[in-house]
Amino acid sequence: MLPRHERRRIAEIERGLSLQDPDLAHLLRESELPGRPRWGARTALGTLAAVAAVLCVLLGEAAGFVSAGLLATALLAGRDWWLSAA
Predict the structure, then answer these.
(1) How high is the mean pLDDT of the chain?
(2) What's the confidence (pLDDT) of residue 63?
(3) What angle is formed at CA 30 by the lines to CA 15 and CA 5, rounded to 5 degrees?
(4) Which structural domain, as residue segments, surrounds residue 68?
(5) In a shared domain, residues 27 and 50
(6) Phi, psi of 5, deg, nearest 5
(7) Which among 75, 68, 29, 30 has a CA at the least distance from the CA of 50?
(8) Which of 24, 46, 50, 78 is the most buried (most CB within 10 A)?
(9) Does the pLDDT of residue 76 top 60, yes or no?
C-alpha cells in the first residue's frame, strides 16, 4: 500500500483531471486494463515438463530429469518475459 502522502497526491491528480477533462477521467475510471491469461501455453508446457521431470526421477532416468527440469525452469521462470523485435 502506498504511503498516505502519495495517496493524497494521487487523489489531487485525479481531481485535477476530473476538472480539466471529465470525459477522459470517466473513460479512464470505467476502462479495464488489458490482462494476460493466467494459463498461457508457456505455463502449461512448463507444468507438463515439471511433471515429466518428476516421472523421470521416479523411473530413474537422470538425463531425462535434467532435460525436463531445465525445460520446466525455462518455461515457468520466463513466463513473464516478452520477446520483441528491435
Answers:
(1) 78
(2) 85
(3) 35
(4) 41-77
(5) no
(6) -65, -30
(7) 68
(8) 46
(9) yes
The pLDDT, as a whole number, for residue 2 is 80
Tell me: do 28 and 1 sit in the same domain. Answer: yes
d(CA 83, CA 73): 17
51 and 29 in a common domain: no
Here the contacts of 64-71 (C-beta below 8 Å, separation 24 or greater) are 71/45, 71/46
- The count of structural domains within the chain is 2
Under a CB-based contact definition with an 8 Å cutoff, are residues 36 and 44 in contact? no
- Give the span between the Cα atoms of 11 and 5, in whole angstroms: 10
**Three-class SS state of 56:** helix
Residues 6+ apart with CB under 8 A from 68: 49, 50, 52, 53, 56
